[in-house]
Amino acid sequence: KEERIVVLETENAVLHLKLAEYQGLAGRSTNEVLQLYAAHGQQMKFQNSVVTQLHGAIKKRLKQDLKSLHSFALELSKDFQRQSKTCLYQVLAAVQGTQLQNEAMQMFQIKAFDLEQSLQEVTERYEKEKQKRKALHNSLIELRGNIRVHCRIRPLLPFDDAAGHSPDRQRNFSEKVAHAADDETVVVKCSRPGHASVNKTFQFERVYNDLESQDAVFADVAPLLTSLLDGYNVCIMAYGQTGSGKTYTMLGPQLEGNLAFSIEEESELGIIPRATQEVFRLISEKPPGSYWVEVSVVEVYNNEIFDLLAKDSCGKVFGIKRDVVTTREGKSDVPLLTHETVENASEFLHLVNKGLQLRVTHPTLVHAHSSRSHLVVTLTITTVVFGDNFGTLWEDEQTSQRLNKEASFTFPQKMRDSKSTSSSRASSPVQLEATEKMKQVKTRLQLVDLAGSECVGMSGVTGAALRETSFINRSLSALADVLGAIAEQRAHVPYRNSKLTHLLQDSVGGDAKLLVMLCISPGQKYLTESMQSLGFGTRARQVQRGQVKKKSFPVPSKGK
Ligand code: ADP
Ligand code: MG
């Protein structure tokens, strides 16, 4: 036990020591803690003061910023107000402007409507006036006569001096025996040896003296072309002996079978080129595309028709014989005849020139002089009329009815044309479809340079020349017979007695307009021929006057 106590006391002492040691340590820690606490307190104090300082500064700064922001916002809103005000003004002004414009627009609309209405009225009135104009023009032409005769006396020319074959060598052949007394009267001084000379006068619708120009002649022809576009067929033919100026009057001065048509020669151009120019001029005044023009050129020689525009397989032009037939509708038609579409007068002249050259050179047409055949240049004008518009184009009832009838049967012809390759106007399927809604009317202008009407005696003439002469005589007699039958208003007009009259059937008689241009050589040498031509003209002129007495029509004498 004592030992045990000693051990325990020792242990107790150690523990005391340890306690003391720990107590010392604890004292130090407490100090340190206290120190730290104090330091902490100081730091806190410091921090607090910094925070307060910062807070103050931030507060102050914020206050400033807020103030400036506020003023800025104020400024901004003021600015915005100002701007929106001006915008508002602008919008208001714009709205007012629009209102004004609307009003103006309405006014304009009303005005446009009024104008449209008056335009429609004017158009209607114009259409009516146009119809009236057509009707008046036609009555004017009819008053002048559907068949009228003009007479042109050419100047004396150097070749008139040649004595010729007359046995009477005492005569002064170049003496001028025919002259124009005024613009309706021809006076011919007829003298026979041993008799006193007598003056014979002839009256025509118009007489041109030897000084009158091609211009003057055409001026009287032009109104007929208006009739042409109004739907009437027109024929203009030159009648007279060889050398009397037929070709000069119809075509113009010719240079080796070639139509001279340079600019300088323009004033010399004859009726055919001028008429074509006029036709194209008249067409240019119409709505585009409603008219087109086709040309054919034929020669009637020895009662046979030659197509002067026919082409061989190589495209070279050569004359082909054609025939003339009467269609079921009673019109004359030349099957397979070449029709070339032309767009203007120069294309036309080019074609006619080709035909004329052929007239001179073609081997089957061997005739010494072009005056031994009839030249017929035909312009076919096709008018396209849409739907029911037909009546308005020709308000004049008769014409309208007549053309309406014709239109319906010319229609299949067009369908055939549009499919044929020979037609120069190719049609697309669309066009074909369109054609079903339109009608077509064809009118014809036939321009004829007749063969010389001289009274060639048949005695002593043989072979080809005899044949030629007899054919010319027969065809001119047939022409005279046709005019005679029309004059006497016979039911039957013998158009088919010769190819010439058959070919001209549609443009001679009925309401077609015919102008016969008598060509007269003024010299004594041609007295007989001139008298014969004047007789023919006088007789033809009576056709429309109804003054025809039953006497035979003067024709070229068939020999002595
Ligand atoms: P046809 O055709 O009737 O046989 P042409 O027209 O060939 O006659 O005329 C014969 C000649 O007379 C030609 O040289 C032509 O130039 C000329 N001639 C005809 N008429 C006139 C005229 N009015 N003015 C001038 N020369 C003309
Ligand atoms: Mg001639």
From TrEMBL:
<dbReference type="GO" id="GO:0003777">
    <property type="term" value="F:microtubule motor activity"/>
</dbReference>
<feature type="coiled-coil region">
    <location>
        <begin position="112"/>
        <end position="139"/>
    </location>
</feature>
<keyword id="KW-0963">Cytoplasm</keyword>
<comment type="similarity">
    <text>Belongs to the TRAFAC class myosin-kinesin ATPase superfamily. Kinesin family.</text>
</comment>
<feature type="region of interest" description="Disordered">
    <location>
        <begin position="405"/>
        <end position="435"/>
    </location>
</feature>
<dbReference type="InterPro" id="IPR027640">
    <property type="entry name" value="Kinesin-like_fam"/>
</dbReference>
<keyword id="KW-0206">Cytoskeleton</keyword>
<keyword id="KW-0175">Coiled coil</keyword>
<keyword id="KW-0067">ATP-binding</keyword>
<keyword id="KW-0505">Motor protein</keyword>
<dbReference type="Pfam" id="PF00225">
    <property type="entry name" value="Kinesin"/>
</dbReference>
<dbReference type="GO" id="GO:0008017">
    <property type="term" value="F:microtubule binding"/>
</dbReference>
<dbReference type="InterPro" id="IPR027417">
    <property type="entry name" value="P-loop_NTPase"/>
</dbReference>
<dbReference type="GO" id="GO:0007018">
    <property type="term" value="P:microtubule-based movement"/>
</dbReference>
<dbReference type="InterPro" id="IPR001752">
    <property type="entry name" value="Kinesin_motor_dom"/>
</dbReference>
<dbReference type="GO" id="GO:0015630">
    <property type="term" value="C:microtubule cytoskeleton"/>
</dbReference>
<feature type="domain" description="Kinesin motor">
    <location>
        <begin position="146"/>
        <end position="543"/>
    </location>
</feature>
<protein>
    <submittedName>
        <fullName>KIF25 protein</fullName>
    </submittedName>
</protein>
<dbReference type="GO" id="GO:0005524">
    <property type="term" value="F:ATP binding"/>
</dbReference>
<keyword id="KW-0547">Nucleotide-binding</keyword>
<dbReference type="InterPro" id="IPR036961">
    <property type="entry name" value="Kinesin_motor_dom_sf"/>
</dbReference>
<feature type="binding site">
    <location>
        <begin position="240"/>
        <end position="247"/>
    </location>
    <ligand>
        <name>ATP</name>
    </ligand>
</feature>
